[in-house]
Amino acid sequence: MTIEDVRSRFLKHFDGATGSVYASPGRINLIGEHTDYNNGFVFPGAVEQGMIAEIKPNETRKVRAYSIDLKDYVEFSLDDEEGPKASWARYIFGVCREMMALGVPVEGFNTAFAGDVPLGAGMSSSAALESVYAFALNDIWGGNKISLMELARVGQRVEHKYLGCKCGIMDQFASVHGKAGSLMRLDCRSGEFEYFPFHPEGYKLVLVNSQVKHELVGSPYNDRRESCERVAAAIYKHHHMVESLRDADYAMLDEVKNEVSEEDYKRAKYVIGEKDRVLKVCEALEKGDYETVGQMMYATHEGLSKEYEVSCEELDYLNDIAKEAGVTGSRIMGGGFGGCTINLVSEELYDNFVKVVKEKFAAKFGKEPVIIDVVIGDGSRRLC
Ligand code: GLA
C-alpha cells in the first residue's frame, strides 16, 4: 500500500479534495518482552511496514472513516460518549477523545487509511493505527505541542480504556519515536531512551510469521500482567522499595515463594530474568558480540514458553527449527500466543534457514510461514 493508493481511495470516497497524509510504523523488539508494564527495559525498533492515513477537516463534529483494507465505513460524533462498535474504528475514536482530553481542539474530519503490517503478527498494527492518528491530530489541531512520548501514552490509554488491553508502552513508543537504522533502548519507568545504531555486520534479522493470529484484546495478556502485580505486591510487604518487578531480584522472589501461587511465581521468575537479559544484550551489542545476543534470545524464548507460557506449538516448533539450522538467536516476538519469531541469522546460513523453515513448518502444519526481512525504519511522520 502506497501513499498514492491511499490518496486515490480517499478521493473516491470523499469530496474529491485532498487532505494531509501521515504514516506510522509497526515495530520489532530485539529483546525485553513483557517487561514494559513491569517498569523494565525494552529494545524495539520501528519497521518499514506501517499505517498510512489521509485526513481532511470536514467542518462538522463528525468523523467519517474508511478502512481501505477492510472496505468498511464508520461515522461517529466526536461528542459521543460510547463511540463506534467496530474495533478498528474504536482506535480512531479513542485517539480523538484522548487528544481532546489533553486540550487539543479536534474537529470533525474525513479519513481513509490502510496498512501493510500483518495483522495479529505481533508487529503492533494497532499501535501503528493509534500513532498515525495521534500524530496527525497533534499536527492538524494541536500545533504539535504534545510531546512524542505523550502521543505514545495516548495510544496506550486507547488500548486500556477503549479496547480493554492493559498493554505497556513499548509498541506506541516505538511507533512514534522510530529512526531508520536504529533500535531504541527504553527505560519504561523513567521514559528515558537511547538510540542504538543497529547494523549487525554479517547477520540479518528476519521474522518468521507462523500466521497463528494473536489477539491481545481479551487474551490472557491481562492475566499475565495481574500475576506480575500480585507478586510485586507480595514482595513489597517485605521490601518497601519494590514498586514493581523491575526492582525485584531472585532472592526476593524466593522469599515470597509460599505467599504466591506457583503460576505467579513462574511468571515473575521469567520477568526478573528478562530485565537482566536486555541489559546484557545492550552490552554485547556494543562489543559486536552477536553470539551472546543470540543466546539471550534463545533464553527469552525458553522463558516465554515454559515460565510465562505465552507460546504455542507452532512458535515452539519455529524455535526448534532455528536452533537445528544453527541460527544465532531466535525467539517469540511481542505479546505471544501466536504471531512471529524474530531470528538473528548469519548471512551464510540465511538461504538455507529460509528454505528449511518453510519446508519443515509446512510439512507439520500444512501451511508455509511467511518470511519478513526486517528493515528498521522511521517513526510517525507527515508524508504530504
Ligand atoms: C504487546 C504489548 C506491549 C508489550 C508486549 C510484550 O505487544 O502491547 O506493551 O507488553 O506485548 O513485550
Q: Which fold name corresponds to the CATH topology of the domain at 3-198 and 377-382?
A: Ribosomal Protein S5, domain 2
Number of helix segments? 11
What oligomeric assembly is this protein in?
A: single chain
- Major sheet summary line: 6 strands, mixed
Q: Overall pLDDT, averaged?
A: 96
Which second-level CATH architecture of the domain at 3-198 and 377-382 applies?
2-Layer Sandwich
Strand-pairing-aware structural class: alpha+beta
Binned strand content: 15-25%
Ligand roster: alpha-D-galactopyranose
* Global geometry: globular
- Gyration radius (Cα, Å) is 21 Å
Uncertain residue segments: none
CATH top level of the domain at 3-198 and 377-382?
Answer: Alpha Beta
The sequence of SSEs as H and E is HEEEEEHEHHHEEEHHHHHEEHEE
| Biggest β-sheet: strands ordered side by side in the sheet | 5-4-6-3-1-13
Spatial separation of the terminal alpha carbons: 16 Å
Residue share in helix = 40-55%
How would you characterize the overall build of this protein?
By secondary structure, this protein is an alpha+beta fold. It has a domain at 3-198 and 377-382: 2-Layer Sandwich (Ribosomal Protein S5, domain 2), CATH 3.30.230.10. It is 43% helix and 21% strand. It is built from 11 helices and 13 strands. The chain has a 6-stranded mixed sheet with strand order 5-4-6-3-1-13, with helices on both faces. Strands 10-11-9-12 form a 4-stranded antiparallel sheet. It binds alpha-D-galactopyranose (GLA).
